[in-house]
Amino acid sequence: VNIGTAFHPLSYTLSCKALPETIELIQDFEMPTVCTSIRVSRDGQFILAAGTYKPRVRCYDTYQLSLKFERCLESDVVTFDILSEDYSKLVFLHIDRYVEFHSQHGHYYKTRIPKFGRDFSYHYPSCDLYFVGASSEVFRLNLEQGRFLNSLQTDAAEINVCDINPVHQLFAAGTLEGRVDCWDPRVRSRVAVLDCALSSLPSVSALKFNGSLGMAVGTSTGQVLVYDLRSSRPLLVKDHYYGLPIKSLHFHDQLDLVLSADSKIIKMWNKDNGKVFSSIEPQANINDVCLYPGSGMLFTANEDPKMNTFYIPALGPAPRWCSFLDNLTEELEENPESTIYDDYKFVTRKDLENLGLTHLIGSPLLRAYMHGFFMDIRLYHKVKTMANPFAYEEYRKDRIRQKIEESRTQRVQLKKLPKVNKELAMKLMEESELPTRKKKKKGNVDNLLSDDRFKVMFENPDYQVDERSEEFRLLNPIVSKVGEKRRQKLSQLVQQEEQQQDEEEEEVEGRGSSEEEESSDDDDKSWVEEVREQRRLIRAEERENRQQEPQRHSQPRFYQIKAGEEFRSFGDVARKQKMQKTSLEERLQREESSGRLNLNDTAVGSKQLTFTLKKAKLLSRRTPTQTLRGTSPVRGVFCCCTKWKSWIR
Prior knowledge:
649 residues; alpha+beta; elongated; NUC153; WD40/YVTN_repeat-like_dom_sf; repeat; WD40_repeat_dom_sf
């Protein structure tokens, strides 16, 4: 339950430190999905609510503060009413034209009306039920005789609501054309017609009698008209200013108030002058409002599972079954806390020095609080205007600058590409625009273009990627479809950059392109096909090179003789080049077969290597033959270890 006051536009919850913020008065006071209608029995003990889904009615016992029973229905309920003092006699009007009667034990009887119904009222003296709906007739069902009586014929196309005056039993029906037809049940004839359209042709959406002469009419455009039955002109017209149909109307006789509700707000105002007393705006849309008789509590059926309960002490005392609410409100009134200064401005000592108000410290104009002071907001604005008379101009310029920047962000943003590796930059930009889930698979590439460690890659031409090289073609085979689209987009961006450089103030309009990613299987298949295609092209290029080899050999070839070498013949040079391409093992076998190398095993498991060096000018003073065991720092010596079976040079 929300405990509110009549002096604020919105009811507030409990905010005292010793009290909880909300109080659950009735246990499980909710519906599975939505509550459509809510009623209180005349004895005040039972609260009944109809809702969905599935269609059902729930009865709550206020003496036990819990759910008494729940009954599921076959279809949704348009509206229902309690005919007895307690829950023993209930009438439900369903959305499929059925009228269902319930007794204390449960379902009792079901019948059907000729047209879809929207509302009904019960005439106690004659035991007649008056049904109105999508028809010009008012259907009468007599519960004493158990049969339908002659209908009341109206001039309207459809009838939305109806009500019966509790004093003189006058029956009134609100039509779709914005008129109210009044009938006398004793003679079954229309006695008056009241036009409430106000030249705007709104339909009547709510109707409620007050005493013998008062009546309130709610329209589909959000106005409430208060009438005296002796006059055809409204005494007062109250507008909700929401443009929504009025759904519920109630009178509070003790304070002469009218409680009107649309789907957004509940307003309480004086029926004589229209002065607003209070208002409640729930979080969910309102379907129905029920005022607990003789108290300041009301219930709302919302487009939400939870049914709201509001208690406003200014409307009246709390009901007998929750009288402890009065004690809570008394505690709130005894301990008022005024910690919010709506009309004050908090300033620090530095702010006072800037404004030149340090001489006011200690005066009643400044109230010390924490590390600063509270001062009147009117005084603050006046002093600030005098201290800085051009503050408004600066504020105006800032707002204009912000508006210009906002309009610039709505324009087409051109991507500025670097001078080097434009296609790589385009690829990184496209990967950075991927969703977060796909970025994890691709890796973090958002800051690669802005990272200083890689800026040389997009500035120095030496780092230009050669897409025609064999290494690039084998490492990046997927360059067909995506590469072509990227090149087209790159050419478009280059043209846009050139146009922007030529005409800087011209607005460039472009169209966004979105590339759909293929599935992983398609990517694998295309990757394999592209790799095969690239290998086939490389083999074809090798064949062309081989075919061109004879032509190259027919031409004279030139050789370079290095310093310190002796030229013998062209065959010797070719033999040296061939020997350089052979492995170390083959060269050792040739040296051993020619007698220039001697290899023996020793007892400790190592190898003994003996070889002969040719004489040279630099090695003329050394011994021609050297025998080494293990490792040696001398260059040009080969050592072998049987443990590792590897040659070390």
